[in-house]
Amino acid sequence: QVQLVESGGGLVKPGGSLRLSCAASGFTFSDYYMSWIRQAPGKGLEWVSYISSSSSYTNYADSVKGRFTISRDNAKNSLYLQMNSLRAEDTAVYYCARDMSSTALIWAFDIWGQGTMVTVSS
Amino acid sequence: QSALTQPPSASGSPGQSVTISCTGTSSDVGGYNYVSWYQQHPGKAPKLMIYEVSKRPSGVPDRFSGSKSGNMASLTVSGLQAEDEADYYCSSYAGSNNLGVFGTGTKVTVL
User: What residues have CB less than 8 Å from B25, skipping those under 6 apart?
Assistant: First the structure.
């Protein structure tokens, strides 16, 4: 079935780094735009980063620009988020999500992973 | 990019309707027809309920409907059922520089 599975979360000290992964299955991963979206404990959703199907275009929320890097490996059906210079305010559940159109970005996330928790604390 | 504004809570009795507003600006909600709505139950991942303002993905009941007027989008849940009790978030595309933003979220309670 169509599925996204995140991994790589954990506890990290402020200033540290973490790499999240998202494994896709059940659909042609290389056809779709993908995003990372996060949710701090008890808070709302926040879009973090986006990558086009061929990796030619990426974008980031101002809150993570310059610290986070999104990438993908279509041969491995995988999405990644490299997070550097982590801060306490980056503590959240991180979801990977698929934009439902295979032809253009329509800002509709139809498939979500179960999320992976990132905790930044000393 | 500021979050879109939603009321913190909304409620209704079973069978009634509830409408949730989502207020943005001409740079996001008012500028594009790429508004989507998500339902999230506690401890679960969000679920897409409405996309492109008023379209329903396959499998979403037609009790859920979306609309937009100017800088405000709305989600209406008709014929409220117990399982509709959840948090709801709107989201909008905001252009190639800012890309997108989510709403502040609305907790819907079925009385």
Answer: B31, B71
